[in-house]
Specification:
The structure is a homotetramer. By secondary structure, chain A is α/β, with parallel strands linked by helices. Chain A is 42% helix and 13% strand. The first copy, chain A, has a single domain, classed as TIM Barrel (Alpha-Beta Barrel). In chain A, strands 3-4-5-6-7-8-9-10 form an 8-stranded parallel β-barrel, surrounded by 4 helices. A two-stranded antiparallel ribbon of chain A has the order 1-2. In chain A, helix 5 links the parallel strand 7 and strand 8. In chain A, helix 1 packs across helix 2, helix 3 runs parallel beside helix 4 and helix 8 crosses helix 9. The N and C termini of chain A lie far apart (57 Å). In chain A, 48% of the residues are buried. The interface between A and B is medium-sized, with 26 and 21 residues. Chains A, B, C, D: Belongs to the shaker potassium channel beta subunit family. Chains A, B, C, D: This is NADP-dependent oxidoreductase domain-containing protein. Chains A, B, C, D: One of its GO terms (molecular function) is oxidoreductase activity. Chains A, B, C, D: InterPro entries: K_chnl_volt-dep_bsu_KCNAB-rel, NAD(P)_OxRdtase_dom_sf, NADP_OxRdtase_dom.
Chain lengths: 346, 346, 346, 346
Amino acid sequence: MAPPEDLPQMTYRFLGRSGLQVSAISLGGWLTYGGYTENEKTFECMKAAFDSGVNFFDCAEVYSGGKSEVVMGQAIKKYGWKRNDLVISTKLYWGTAFGDNPVNNKGLSRKHIIEGMAASLKRLDLDYVDVIYAHRPDRQTPMEETVRAFNHLINTGQALYWGTSMWDADEIAQAWRYADKLGLIGPIVEQPQYNMLNREKVELEFAKLYREVGTGLTVFSPLAQGLLSGKYKNGIPEDSRFAQQKVEFIQGWWKRNGKEKFDEMIAQINQLEPIAADLGITQSALALAWVLKNPNVSSAIIGASSAEQIYENVKAVAAVEKLTPEILEKIDGILNNKPPAVVERY
Amino acid sequence: MAPPEDLPQMTYRFLGRSGLQVSAISLGGWLTYGGYTENEKTFECMKAAFDSGVNFFDCAEVYSGGKSEVVMGQAIKKYGWKRNDLVISTKLYWGTAFGDNPVNNKGLSRKHIIEGMAASLKRLDLDYVDVIYAHRPDRQTPMEETVRAFNHLINTGQALYWGTSMWDADEIAQAWRYADKLGLIGPIVEQPQYNMLNREKVELEFAKLYREVGTGLTVFSPLAQGLLSGKYKNGIPEDSRFAQQKVEFIQGWWKRNGKEKFDEMIAQINQLEPIAADLGITQSALALAWVLKNPNVSSAIIGASSAEQIYENVKAVAAVEKLTPEILEKIDGILNNKPPAVVERY
Amino acid sequence: MAPPEDLPQMTYRFLGRSGLQVSAISLGGWLTYGGYTENEKTFECMKAAFDSGVNFFDCAEVYSGGKSEVVMGQAIKKYGWKRNDLVISTKLYWGTAFGDNPVNNKGLSRKHIIEGMAASLKRLDLDYVDVIYAHRPDRQTPMEETVRAFNHLINTGQALYWGTSMWDADEIAQAWRYADKLGLIGPIVEQPQYNMLNREKVELEFAKLYREVGTGLTVFSPLAQGLLSGKYKNGIPEDSRFAQQKVEFIQGWWKRNGKEKFDEMIAQINQLEPIAADLGITQSALALAWVLKNPNVSSAIIGASSAEQIYENVKAVAAVEKLTPEILEKIDGILNNKPPAVVERY
Amino acid sequence: MAPPEDLPQMTYRFLGRSGLQVSAISLGGWLTYGGYTENEKTFECMKAAFDSGVNFFDCAEVYSGGKSEVVMGQAIKKYGWKRNDLVISTKLYWGTAFGDNPVNNKGLSRKHIIEGMAASLKRLDLDYVDVIYAHRPDRQTPMEETVRAFNHLINTGQALYWGTSMWDADEIAQAWRYADKLGLIGPIVEQPQYNMLNREKVELEFAKLYREVGTGLTVFSPLAQGLLSGKYKNGIPEDSRFAQQKVEFIQGWWKRNGKEKFDEMIAQINQLEPIAADLGITQSALALAWVLKNPNVSSAIIGASSAEQIYENVKAVAAVEKLTPEILEKIDGILNNKPPAVVERY
């Protein structure tokens, strides 16, 4: 399926304080590729993304027990894309997760980082990735060991840059502290969750990192597992054919916060509908554009099971400039979760 | 021979201040593998250990003139174990020891470290070891040369970590001094002898290292060459079929300390018998559990010539929690060799 | 075509504060090789240069979309020159420029430096270049990333030295600042334009760099696109068969400065004719010798489409010593563009 | 020819402040191997040396235009010696010297060090040398470039250590200054001329280096081109079949110092004859033992064209202990060239 004619021009952003450029929208393999999406569909999605100007494909050793890397690697070969036109990332921490012995096949020890990278590159059938992430912080392995091991991957040409995912701000600062002390390369990017409903980490906790070490962000769940698309405005249907795993996320939310809070949240999201309508865009596009409006976001990672979904999401790129200060203020009023500004001086 | 049903769950510990996890019980090739144990028995032992959750196998270039590395490498291939599920260590210092020209084939020069590592990996038929040890201190080679050479092995991917064996505390501190000065990786682990009869090095001399540089310990002879198993409670039988080399160790002890002292020691060990009986464990299990009770011990290295011995020893893991402060105090009273506490402040 | 009998001995100069020696005249592939010069002519030119003592051949990934590297590499193979007798340089920044996606295939990110180097070496069919240049400054990529990436090329044996082209003095100083801070290798050479008409950058702006970091210069356009050869003394002929691209340069000049200024410049250049005649050399030789008279110039890069042109230019080497202080002063009087001396103390 | 029965046990010394051990007598390829000694004789000499306990073989890229490396490499293969039992050194500076273009094939630039090392290893047919020397100081290449390039050889596994030859003390100190500043490895050894007639460099100029940086010495011409063997006690025979090149050395001496001075020197040397006779050793053995008596000398490099010569020289090892303080004082009285002691404090 060819890209629609009204597809906007993709925009590219530097990945934090680095010279690497990534498309504002990137495609991730979480849950979908190698998982509940069949391989033919995966190929179709990756092609639609590439044809839309997406150059950044995100994976992890743990996604679908390693199968996500395999199928994404196959797509690259299948379409004969040039390696230098792509930005490929994967993540180490969980091992291949399903069935493997967790001892030494998990975490950020030098052993798992080196063994995990070799295994990921073999699955991807690539010589190197552009960005290798620490998928979680490992609070039992000394930070110095982890920083050294990621630099080993860079020095041996297996990765060009490294980053973190789901780390706390002080952990990122510690990693930079060791990198600086030892003359090594620090993590250029963090991958947190970021969307209209989850703002504190990106807008408050990380605020000083952007200035001090130039952390870039590739954010996941920009649509909050679909909640912000508006498709649950009448609640979650009982017999939804919707992917079981996503429902599980929402059920987890229920368990933690209660159904009542959930319904309040849905009501709040529904108030965003008229704003999207006024701008002539879908609620998804509004949510995605809102994420991209944050200049610290280098790329918003979307998941997709069809080319249509990808084209739909890419349209959000054109909506970014529509988000005027007035509209952003109106959205803040509805969301009522804007973190306080970090006071710099007293 | 399959593991017995009552085999306890293996526990894993971090190897000092590193992210590498080793089984509390590890299997060493000293004297046995490639030596007086035939290869089929070696394979059986390694399989029994692996099936018991042992992930850490210890070797040295000098063990049986290099044959220990060969047979342990064969076992890994034979059973198709995944490399990432194993922690393999070997040690450099003595060369292959039997018949080789000692000039430059011994010690911790850059030459022997680099040439010895290549030879060990070839014998093991592996691409890398997890831990490479300096088997002894080399007081003639400058420490800086040794620290640089072990880092060379790590940088070239032939080893993931390095450690020391039979070094003095101040030598370990000197190695760290050069590592720090040059931004290199220091030794994460020391391998000393440690058991109820030999406590001073581990409990007194190394006390400050644990805090300052996070030295982990893999200890050998946890049963003091079998003395602590209680099997010599009536003395050493004249025509013992017991491995000749072990007897030689004990004879050496006699020469240094005299038969009278030896008999005193046996009497002392015999007093531990009722404590083991009260806990419902063997004397060996008591001795091994006592070693593992020390939180600075990452792993106790056992030697074994049969699967039964391995299962027997692994049972000690479950006995560790039985060693209450009261029981430990009672044992200290019998051993009468508890080193003084290191006074931290005056 | 064999070198003429009166060809002077080539001279060699150190490339800035390095131990690498380059011929005073070097041959560049810009516009010509792989471009408007046919390959047989390129081979002939390179042979004439080599036979004249030229050891330095300059290229760039962008020259003729990569074809310049291909044909220059073919010449090296064709004539069986020994690699150690050659100094080969290429430049990274623009990608292969014609038709390639500019995202990540341009600039001085770690990604493009590593991917671009591999692609250049493949086109050149060489294992390494002697000098790899940053073809332009990249003001969006952090300088530290760029300095580290060029050092990665040196550490992995793909290049022996690195340099810059068309950088400002403060950018070169910044690169050295990061190199010094991190214990890395700084850029030894800058490649600017330098000729009688363009003096400020080399004679004023860079003045302190020569002393502080020892920057060497390989200069391009020593004849100012042919203007200084005197062949346009009567203006640019309307139907010139002269290479279209060079005319475009001059037309660009017109657009920026106006035809009147251009005619003034031609009149000024014409005043150099009698000086050349007095010395018994061509106007080209005078202009080239004048560039080489500057001791900070390591090599003047010429372009040529025939062996004759090369021999003609090489003759300038013998003219350098003819440029006495008196003659240089006379030339300064005509050019009227001598930058002020950098005052060192007040 | 098998070693004589009275051949003394070879002794080994550490190469300066390093962990590398070299035989007190080493065999060099200068002038002889690949040169005026035929290859079969070279093999015989190397075997005799090896059988005598010599483990250190010294070469240089320039010796016999590279042929010395070739034939010494062939001997190693021919006799199947184990690489770890040998200490092989070669030297870079002069290129292969005979007929090669000197531009960039000479000196201590990064280019020549890297290209020269590759060429030497190819000629030697080895993966690495133990020691790579800078054969002369290069006063035109920045010292930092040279220090970095030799470390590059070590980091890439092509050499284990590096040293200098014919450098001044302050140049060695400068090399260490850059090594220290950059955290790199400094030169562990210097190769100067040292014999009874040339003492100043080793005994005076280098005196502080031994203490400060631990410089070891491998010395050449311990017999002063044969002068100290006593075989010219009646002057140089006119029609000597003695190797032409050695005569040229002596002729050079004549030119610089005059025949009269030469005859004085011969007379002085003749006074050593009775001392040797008293000790029951040859004059050569006395001269060689005298060199080895200096504890800063790690090895004395001899040249030899026959197995007999080697066995003869090796005997000097046993003579070292015969040189009592009294005898040394008597020798000093004859030589009358003992440098003043370096005054340490005032």
